[in-house]
Amino acid sequence: MLQAFLLLGLPFAKIGGQSAVRFDTGNLTMYFFGSVIRINEFYLILAAVLFMLLSIVAVSAILGRVYCGWLCPQTLLLDFSSDVAGLFSKKHGAALRRVVLIPMSVLAGFSIIGYFIPPEDILRLLFNSKPVFAATTALSLVIYTGVAWLGRGFCAGVCPYSMLQNALFDDDTQVIAFDRSRSDDCLKCRACVNACPVGIDIREGLGRECVACAGCIDACIKATAKKGIRPFISYSGKVVRPKTFMLGGTVLVAAIVFAALLYFRPDVNFIVARDPIQPVKGVNRYVYALQNNTGKSFTFRLTVDRPLVLIGEPEVTVPPYSIKHGMVMIKAKTSVSSVTFNLVNGTKTLKREAGFL
Length: 357
Ligand code: SF4
Ligand code: SF4
Known about the structure:
Elements: H1 2-9, E1 14-15, E2 18-19, E3 21-24, E4 29-32, E5 35-38, H2 42-63, H3 66-70, H4 73-88, H5 93-114, H6 119-128, H7 130-150, H8 152-157, H9 160-168, E6 175-178, H10 191-195, H11 215-225, E7 233-236, H12 242-264, E8 268-274, E9 283-292, E10 298-304, E11 309-311, E12 315-318, E13 323-331, E14 338-345, E15 348-355
Antiparallel strand pairs: 1-2, 3-4, 4-5, 6-7, 8-9, 9-13, 10-12, 10-14, 11-13, 14-15
Helix pairs in contact: 2-12, 4-5, 5-7, 6-7
Bound molecules: iron/sulfur cluster (SF4) (2 copies).
One iron/sulfur cluster (SF4) binds at residues 176, 195-198, 200, 202, 210-216.
């Protein structure tokens, strides 16, 4: 449930006035837990993607398909809908599950749209924008088809992530396994088979369909407890081994690099460039961009060193997570070849040099 709240709620949770996680398609900007990453900050995106890929490799190689059983939204929708349907009818559980999945799929589609559109605009756009309505409807239909009709078949035959995980396994990866050395003592009650959501018999070995939900372990624990014997199914593999430290260390380094890049990034980026067209002799025109990377609003005072004179709006306010573009003119009373811009905010000053004709 926690995972459901996280996945569905992240775009709607606010940090610093913006979504906790959202990619703003209009501004090509990613909001990420109080930080803003713009599409031109490629190094940050690269570091984040690298961290995610390394995490997937490490978790899959050490803990197997733990994502499939415990974190995958598909698993969550299937488990939750089965539980709800089971409350009302055991006999018509499958049909009821498909009904329960309709509002859940719509909610999931709505939430995915929330990852791209500001939460405060979604409802308005949903009923006033044909593309937003069509995208939400199409997403809901795709999700519904995936969970209600393909079900676990999607995990076994379609999901690319499941195939990738299987390729990352080695002999020590943690998997769910039947203890073959005790197979003669198995009660043959088939509780493990009946509990399996993908319909495999774990006693015959690990199948590619297994989503590591541990349902067979629970079923076997119950069945064997009545007889006072140890269960035949359990987790197998070695978590603590050299590969764990190697992969874990690599992920940690990637996380530190990403966090450091975010932490040491300046609060404000200040870019200034001279317009090549000179309006009047002795006067140069400059365009500037101020990029506020924080959730706070900043007001700056723009000045130039004497004897140059700044003509234009000297005070600029940049709202949180936004970019402000502006233009000023600089007049020189004597011959100069460059100009120094000072962007002053309290005790902090950012300086930029530009040429003067
Ligand atoms: S074999 Fe066990 S762990 Fe794997 S999907 Fe079936 S019940 Fe879940
Ligand atoms: S639940 Fe346990 S005891 Fe029963 S068939 Fe499966 S492995 Fe054997």
